[in-house]
Specification:
alpha/beta, 275 residues, eight-stranded mixed β-sheet, 12 helices, 39% helix
Length: 275
């Protein structure tokens, strides 16, 4: 691995939270896959493109990009060794993919080596946001495009918030890996960071989609309570209290049960910019 300046994030994603994602990729992808269409429509990847997937995790979006860039190549970069191990295993036999363990804020990308840079929620964690995006921009050819999705600010009246209300009083702070996740929830801040990093033609749009959290309310409640930020905040509670919280979350999710699983509406920011 090359130089790392995001030391805290590297330690977190190579620890228990990174392993949690690596061991449960299908469950995490269920939360995010419905946003893929908007991301790839914004990216407009052609068959000959060289594509960079920033914060690629277990490689779901890297594989999807490789299906589009059939005559090109897709490089996925992430800090997490456990997640990259899973990504490499799941991409075995796909010839136009490579995975790199590295810190995208300072990684020596080939200058103007990519036509597209994409990210499904992996670009909010830079210690220096402007430096991180400037480094990604240097890796893009002139006219190359950046497309990513990131979280919107929590909605106190949103479906997920209401369904998981039993957790609210216990969520006192982010887990180690989640620190920085809310650094770009303000569209004005997104525009400011990307402008300072040298991008232009910046657009920020709200996208709504469905998050699938489990096959039924019980499975969804179990999954939510296993999420890194939730585990981190519940770890000091006794078992009976945790069980009670999980039961209340399960009850809150019952109204979202469908034959296709527990489906809760969610929103993200879809961002597009040009080098």
């Amino acid at each position: 691995m090359g130089p790392v300046v995001n030391i805290q994030q590297s330690e977190a994603w190579n620890g228990w939270e990174g392993r949690l994602w690596a061991e449960n990729p299908d469950r995490y992808n269920g939360m995010l896959d419905d946003f893929n269409a908007a991301l790839f429509t914004a990216a407009e990847i052609d068959e000959g493109h060289q594509v960079l997937d920033v914060g690629c995790g277990t490689g779901r979006t890297t594989r999807l990009a490789a299906e589009l860039a059939t005559r090109g190549r897709v490089a996925g970069i992430d800090l997490s060794a456990p997640m990259l191990a899973r990504a490499r295993a799941d991409a075995a036999g796909i010839p136009n993919i490579e995975f790199v363990q590295g810190d995208a804020q300072v990684h020596p990308f080939p200058e103007a080596g990519f036509d597209r840079a994409i990210s499904r929620g992996g670009v909010m964690f830079f210690a220096d946001l402007v430096a991180g995006f400037a480094n990604i921009r240097r890796g893009l050819r002139p006219g190359g495009r950046l497309a990513f999705i990131g979280p919107t600010a929590p909605n106190p009246d949103g479906d997920y918030t209401r369904a998981t209300a039993a957790l609210a009083e216990f969520m006192s702070g982010p887990s180690p890996a989640a620190r920085g996740m809310m650094s770009m929830v303000d569209p004005a801040r997104i525009d400011e960071v990307l402008t300072e990093a040298g991008f232009r033609d910046i657009t920020v749009n709200r996208v709504e989609a469905i998050e699938v959290l489990g096959e039924d309310a019980a499975a969804a409640a179990e999954f939510i309570c296993s999420l890194g930020p939730v585990q981190f905040n519940l770890q000091g509670l006794d078992k009976s209290t945790v069980d009670k919280i999980r039961d209340e979350v399960r009850a809150g999710l019952r109204r979202y049960e469908t034959p296709q699983g527990v489906q809760v509406p969610g929103t993200v920011w879809l961002v597009r910019a040009t080098n």
